[in-house]
Write a sequence for this structure.
């Protein structure tokens, strides 16, 4: 057989393989080609609409164009989460290039200048500093075994009993989520839940769904417990202690209420599966676990705990005593943890979650270009017109709208998009922080309205699916939507009473 014949045969086999692959409907659905085709069609359709609208009203056309880019970006991030940084930065590049052509007032320096007066820039450098510093602190602290020690200690205290274990799992998730990123806390706690559930023959579903609610509550516990709270605290000029004065009384009621609700929808007697295996753990084995076995160096363990405590104290005293931004405190805390634990700074920086920092930088650029169209200012004026300047009515609208939009998109871009709207609302000297807290609480509880409303819920569903316990949309909403709506209503009433009866916000 000649070389030409071999080439012809290989070409025919390649065509045949290509046809068999793409003629199979299931393989076609699993590929990204349908999404790419649909995206291309929508892009062409959007461009045609933009051309038609631009001839009538350039401003409306710009709002439509950048609005589609913003929403489309986060829909793509939801579909291809593993490529979120690529998607974000491609969208940023397209947005900035379009802005430079369409906006006469656009300046490239606005991309890196701090947001707000007097620069009108896009970048929230203080938020990035907090995320950077806390990421270093958590990495340095976790490698000493501090968080693993907490998990084993909790398991021993509960002795494997269903309801005590459930409550302690909820509280530990809440505590970890106030220090760690929600996803990081969920990864740590889910591995413990699966280990314990498989060993004790318990259904992991109630524990993981309870952990999702715990991360939502933790997201508004402190000024540094979630990325939306950092955003709101930075732009709303809220101090660490001021934040705690608002969040702690709410949590004192909300946490027991949530636990009692979960006990009702997940009765403790139904959590054991009754299929005990030879691998099941007994009480004696649980009590014999050594929490210090995960700690290689007790001195580093105590120093890591000390650095964490000192950093939290620094956040409390940052503005009132030292007069420095919380971003500076976070970076000092990260450096302190490296020095005290003698961690390898090169390895820590290599393992740092740079994705989060880059995601935020891209988010600020996208929101900045969207704000330049005037759409957020228009929304603020519409909010003022609808509420007729009534701050209570405006707060209720922000709480409801931000929560339901957060159930579709992640609460991080929703919070970032609403910040200019809150800033544009006519300020009141008596209640300067009321709308800020309404925005934060709305975004926090909106994540429990749908299975894809928060990263924690997506992770929990993914883990259960891998364990052979897939959750459908209806089951998730049936279990979590009632308590999410209840907490949402309770937060609105609480903040209104706190603001207009006690005049605390």
């Amino acid at each position: 057989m000649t070389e030409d014949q071999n080439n012809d045969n290989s070409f025919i086999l390649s065509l045949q393989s290509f046809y068999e692959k793409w003629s199979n409907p299931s393989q076609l659905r699993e590929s990204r080609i349908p999404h790419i085709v649909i995206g291309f069609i929508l892009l062409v359709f959007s461009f045609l609409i933009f051309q038609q609208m631009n001839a009538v009203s350039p401003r409306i056309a710009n709002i439509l164009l950048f609005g589609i880019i913003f929403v489309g970006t986060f829909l793509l991030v939801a579909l291809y989460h593993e490529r979120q940084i690529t998607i974000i930065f491609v969208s940023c590049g397209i947005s900035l290039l379009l802005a430079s052509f369409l906006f006469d007032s656009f300046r490239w320096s606005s991309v890196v200048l701090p947001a707000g007066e007097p620069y009108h820039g896009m970048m929230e450098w203080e938020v990035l500093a907090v995320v950077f510093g806390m990421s270093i602190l958590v990495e340095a602290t976790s490698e000493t075994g501090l968080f693993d020690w907490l998990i084993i200690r909790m398991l021993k205290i509960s002795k494997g009993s269903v309801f005590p274990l459930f409550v302690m799992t909820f509280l530990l998730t809440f505590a970890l989520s106030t220090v760690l990123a929600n996803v990081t806390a969920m990864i740590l706690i889910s591995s413990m839940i699966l280990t314990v559930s498989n060993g004790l023959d318990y259904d992991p579903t109630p524990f993981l769904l309870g952990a999702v609610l715990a991360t939502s509550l933790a997201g508004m516990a402190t000024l540094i417990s979630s990325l939306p709270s950092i955003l709101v605290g930075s732009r709303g000029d809220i101090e660490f202690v001021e934040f705690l004065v608002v969040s702690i009384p709410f949590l004192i009621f909300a946490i027991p209420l949530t636990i009692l609700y979960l006990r009702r929808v997940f009765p403790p007697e139904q959590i054991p599966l009754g299929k005990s295996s030879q691998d099941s753990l007994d009480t004696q084995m649980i009590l014999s676990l050594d929490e210090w076995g995960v700690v290689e160096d007790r001195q580093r363990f105590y120093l890591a705990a000390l650095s964490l405590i000192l950093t939290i104290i620094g956040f409390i005293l940052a503005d009132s005593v030292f007069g420095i931004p919380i971003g500076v405190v976070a970076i000092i805390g990260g450096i302190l943890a490296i020095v005290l634990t003698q961690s390898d700074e090169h390895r820590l920086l290599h393992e740092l979650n740079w994705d989060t920092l880059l995601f935020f930088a891209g988010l600020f650029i996208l929101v900045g270009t969207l704000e330049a169209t005037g759409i957020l200012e228009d929304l603020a004026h519409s909010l003022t017109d609808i509420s007729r300047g009534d701050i209570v009515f405006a707060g209720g609208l922000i709480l409801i709208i931000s929560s339901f939009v957060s159930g579709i998109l992640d609460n991080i871009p929703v919070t970032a998009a609403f910040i200019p709207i809150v800033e544009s609302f006519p300020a009141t000297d008596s209640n300067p922080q009321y709308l800020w807290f309404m925005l934060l609480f709305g975004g926090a509880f909106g994540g429990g309205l749908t299975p894809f409303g928060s990263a924690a819920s997506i992770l929990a569903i993914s883990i259960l699916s891998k364990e052979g316990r897939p959750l459908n949309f209806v089951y998730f909403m049936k279990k979590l939507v009632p308590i999410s709506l209840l907490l949402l209503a309770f937060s609105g009433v609480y903040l209104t009473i706190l603001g207009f009866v006690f005049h605390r916000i």
About this structure: Residues 473-500 form the longest helix (28 residues).
